[in-house]
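Review form for a predicted model. The reviewer records the input and the model, then writes brief findings.
Reviewer: anonymous (R2)
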Amino acid sequence: MSTGTLLVEALTTLAVLVHAYYGWALAIIATLTVLLLALVGALNTLYDHLTRARKDTRP
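Model under review:
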């Protein structure tokens, strides 16, 4: 099997699964997106806190 055939087969299988279980798929994607945004927000807050603390300690 060529790589193209495997790719088409994988995409077809994914399309069938998403079509059959699109509710679950959308829920999982939405949950992962929200968790990713929360993680990015938390890291941004931590970075701001650490850089602000470092600026305050400079003479």
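Findings: The CA atoms of residues 30 and 38 lie 12 Å apart.
Further findings: The mean pLDDT is 77.
Recommendation: see findings above.
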